[in-house]
Amino acid sequence: MTAAGPAREPGRPADLRYPAVNPGPHEEERPVPHEPQPQSPDELDAQAVRTWSSLAVAALGRAREDIDAINVYPVADADTGTNLYLTAESADRALAEALGNAPAGVSGTTGDGRPDAAGRASLLPTLSHAVRAYAHGALIGARGNSGTILAQLLRGVADVLGEEPGDRAPGPLLARALTRAAEEAYAAVAHPVEGTMLTIAAAAARAGETAAAAGTAADVALAAYDGARAALADTPGQLAELGRAGVVDAGGCGLVAVLGALSQALSGREPAAEAVRGRAVPVPQPPQPCDAEEQGGPAYEVIYLLEAAEPDVARLRERLDGLGDSLVVVGGDGLWNVHVHVDDPGAAVEAGVVAGRPYRIRITYFGDERRRARGERVQRAVVAVVPGEGLAGLCGEAGATTVLAPPGEVPDTAELVDAIRRAHAREVVLLPGGADQRAAAAAAAEQARADGVRVAVIPTRSAVQGLAALAVHDPEGTFDEDVVAMTAAAGATRYGELAVAERQSFTSAGICQAGDVLGLIDGDVAVIGSGLDDTARAVLERMLGSGGELVTLVLGPEVPDSLAARLEAYVQHGHLAVDTVTYRGGRHCAPLLIGVE
Q: Residue 75, exposed/middle/buried by CB under 10 A (0-12, 13-18, 19+)?
């Protein structure tokens, strides 16, 4: 496969070494046309935060492909710019929603009942409301190592600006917020490394504190931005991986873009062009790709939101630190975002279950990212929604980008759009995990098509149908032929499932009691039994009654391997020409999934 460099904007030089952050004139600052109205240089309010957020999304959107292209640390998976952009986008959405529903204060009135000046001001959302919403949006939408650290930086800012400012001047207040942000980001990373965005955050904070004594908020923001740019230029000398590749830190470059947006929001003037102009490191060629196995690092990235108490999270940190690396746990007040690189994704999620309630679980196999590390956009990819970590790993090894959706949970459209973007392909085949996920899949496909990606949704109703479709996927054939073949394979696969009844209920097979084992075929209860073995055999016999060549068994986390052995023997005894394959579904998977092709 021929490697291709990152897409460039018309007129951008081919030998660009660093991403352009807030590109603009090099000689002097100038007012930005068609942007939100600038703030007073010494004014920190909700509107300033809203402007900052909008400008940060725009800056990261412009720079994300260039940032992806220089991503070599901690894993060269070419997604740092995209992760930062998606994190900022999530924060911006949450902020917009919060300001649209912001509580009004108690207003004063004039003699005719209309709000007076103080009353009109009290109807505006507060700075505290805005920064807390902004940080919360970043927390729940954080992507990757860099996005998770950005979320914690914004939380640190919110911890200071979210307090009642009292008589503190905006300049020193903002400086203190940047300092708190850097402190909290360092604390969130299990093993901080210099030469990364942590270093950039600390340099920005120091520069901001220096300017705070006699400076406005705009002065502090500009000083922080300049300090960050200078620190970014030095990162190749601090981190060996960057020095060998001849690039600056990708996460730090994104943070410079965010700080540039803050300076622009407070002053109304565009920051000074590129992040490290005049401090280039010679780059003989783009950074070379290397997957997790070549680097000797863990094979999976695991991210999830976690509802848990702080003492339980402290124990979780210790557990995850022993399982892998690149551990970052951010958040507080009962809600956390957990990020770690591991070889055993199931164990990482299990640790979260012990600590509290994990959800929005995302598992990425780093082998999927090799193409992105080369800066390539492949012709075709598959995105599959799966109910368990074991299936996520299985589909990942087969080349699919996966979205984990435990039974009863439906991934939202944003998660599916994110997965389509991560697939980094011109054509995508989307395999929803069930009928209840088709609406979100259809909406995600429409959004992706608007971005120029050709997407086909195959109406799979079970994970085993997705496995059947993935087995015949042919990325070398035409898109239409591939979709037809995968649709036919999924449609030719009957699917069954074993579940345990939680309460007495009426079913299509009669009345079940709590604790009964239910055998479902094609979504309907067909068998009510008292044990897994007998019920599974009854379901298999009915499914094979109309013929079949291959039986697929997917075992849940608490089902012993001996059950699979007994079922395989049962199939071989009664159906000599039928083969059987068995997989582990992992945590959250149903006790047993059955496919008959």
A: buried
CA distance 251 to 53: 18
Contact at 8 Å (CB) between 424 and 371?
yes
The helix/strand/coil state of 440 is: helix
Is 539:521 a contact under the CB 8 Å cutoff? Answer: yes
Residues 489 and 216: their CA atoms lie apart, in Å, by 65
CB 154 within 8 A of CB 161: no
- What is the spatial distance between Cα 347 and Cα 359, in angstroms, rounded to a whole number? 15
Query: Is the Cα torsion angle 240, 245, 248, 254 positive or negative in sign?
Result: negative
pLDDT tier at 16 (50, 70, 90 boundaries)? very low
Q: Alpha-carbon distance 182 to 184, whole Å?
A: 6
DSSP annotation string for 209-257 = HHHHTT--HHHHHHHHHHHHHHHHHHGGGT-HHHHHHT---HHHHHHHH
CA-nearest of 178, 268, 184, 256 to 218 is 268
Strands 524-529 and 550-555, bridge-based pairing: unpaired
Cα–Cα distance between 182 and 188 in angstroms, integer? 10
Which pLDDT band holds residue 397 (cuts at 50, 70, 90)? confident
Per-residue pLDDT tens over the stretch 210-243: 998 878 999 999 999 999 999 999 999 999 989 8
Write out pLDDT tens, residues 162-196. Answer: 885 555 688 899 999 999 999 999 999 999 999 99
- Of all residues in the chain, what percent carry a pLDDT higher than 70? 82
CA distance 577 to 157: 65
| 474-481 mean pLDDT | 88
3-state secondary structure of 329: strand
pLDDT at residue 523 above 50?
yes
Q: What is the CA radius of gyration of the chain?
A: 27
Q: Which of 553, 149, 561, 586 is nearest to 344 (CA)?
A: 586
